[in-house]
Amino acid sequence: MAHDATANTRPSNNFLRELIADQSARGAFDGPVITRFPPEPNGFLHIGHAQSICVNFGLADYFGGYCRLRFDDTNPEKEEQRYIDQVAEDVHWLGFDWEGAIRFTSDYFPTLYEYALHLIKNGDAYVDELSSEQAREYRGDWNTPGTNSPYRERSPAENLDRFEMMRAGEFAEGTAALRAKIDMGAGNMNLRDPIIYRVRHASHHQTGDAWCIYPSYDFAHGQSDAIEGVTHSICTLEFADHRPLYDWFIEHLPVPAQPVQYEFGRLNLTFTVTSKRRLRRLIDEGFVDGWDDPRMPTLSGIRRRGYTPVSIRNFCEAAGVARTDGTVDVAQLEHAVRDDLNKNAPRAMCVMDPLKIVITNWPDDQVETLTASAHPDRDDMGTRNLTLTREVFIEREDFREAANKKYKRLVLGKKVRLRNAYVIEAHDVVKDDAGEIVEVHCHYDPDTLGELPADGVKPKGVIHWVSASFGVRATVRQYDRLFATPKPGNDASDFVDDINPDSLTIHNECYVEPGLVQAEPETRVQFERIGYFVADRHDHAPGSPVFNQTVALRDSWAKQSA
Question: Residues 128-147: what's their mean pLDDT?
């Protein structure tokens, strides 16, 4: 069940809800709606999985039923405990609770083995000893029917004997496989005597060395659903061609329930890759710093970037559930988090590229505490204190010695307001030997706190600032989209050729207002005039802040595209 009340609580309709509602009205199934989320523990979950999580948990919640978390752990060579732990953490972080304990397909290995024996005894499965190369030849292709294996007509007794030999470890990997006996001439390739069990001499993270044969996903999936009493097995569209096989196994086995599989369109995003193979390559070749790099589309990466669970769930709800695959502009995901953070993130000031301002008519030892709202539209967030001193930092780009009328920041001889503070006027600069400005000298008007200057002329601009003596030095990472093109690798080039070289910029000399010195990891904040940021969940520490940019205040990519 979803347990975050701040999410969008008015779900849009979709064909799966309509389908299940119709079935329920007709009495097509008994008891509550039971769904499952069945990830393979061979990597981290990504944004596409988020939609699947929202669909499966959302359907169960909508109909007052249950959703279960089950790991499809049938491939021990690629699976690790850390992936299991991360998936469970991601599902909870996204805001969902599964029914009962975490389940594993490996929990059902003994039962699946008995189901395999049942098929063999009924003449519906056989041990095939073709090599992998021979098996490919016998299988045919989309235009050519397959050919029966010479081992296909073995007797049930002989197949039982050979299968027991597989179980006992007497076959090397790749020398024998148990296949369902269906139809080598079927137009659906999945029905051409699919593999049920393979020999794998590999230790399993749950069962250790108890098994040296492992069931295929297609064989284990539906039967695990049936054992758990799942009513609706909801998959993405790439499994549509597997549905006849799913149904065939259910019909030919003494399973305790009759689950039914339905498919929906997979969610793809522009400027994004979600293939685990591609994500692994990004990590292995050093393009990103691990599965949870904030540029990655993994849920742990998105979380570290500062996205909120509510924003992701609202995005998935807005994207909808379609019957066909589709691609959604990543700007919609960015809009979802921008909308959430605009409403809920407190405000603060950060100077990214500091230039020192000296207020020459401010006493050297004077320290003034000013008060500003924590959020302009949220009285419930209270206020925050700002410390103003003789020397402050502003953004280097917020000052010019001379500028035209369109420049509404600090210029020699012109006035601007320090945000939430006084009006200042620049009158001199100090440069180093290279001619670089290192200080700007200003006067401040002590009668302009919350007021216009005495002449009634409104300053042209408002700029943010941080006290040079009380501000806290911080590292700020500005992130951008990892890829520079909407469809990475779509023009037949290597997808890594489309990586955005400016996807990460690290600023080590930033200053934030002192109220952030004790900010906890994962504290989200809007740096005024810059964007939305989050205290890094791993590297940030009170007194040594590290902030990651979540998203800019506005969509700069839309302007570039236009």
Answer: 96
Looking at 433, 467, 501, the residue that finishes a domain is: 467
Residues 6+ apart with CB under 8 A from 415: 423, 424, 425, 453, 457, 459, 460
Q: How many CA within 13 A on the CB side of residue 354?
A: 27
Domain end point (choices 215, 237, 259): 215
DSSP for 77-119 reads: GG--HHHHHHHHHHHHHHTB--SSS-EEGGGGHHHHHHHHHHH
Let me know whether 47 and 191 are in one domain. Answer: no
The answer to whether residue 294 sits within a structural domain is: no
State whether 443 and 357 are in the same domain.
yes
Q: Looking at residue 298, what DSSP letter applies?
A: B
Question: Structural domain of residue 363, as residue ranges?
Answer: 353-467
DSSP 395: E
Average pLDDT for 520-526: 97
pLDDT digits 0-9 by tens, 7-39: 444 445 689 999 999 999 999 988 999 999 999
Query: What domain count does the chain have?
Result: 4
Catalytic annotation, residues:
40, 266, 276
- Give the torsion sign (CA, 221, 222, 227, 232): positive
The single-letter DSSP state of residue 141 is: B
CA angle 535, 276, 482 (to 5 degrees): 45
Give the chain's length.
562
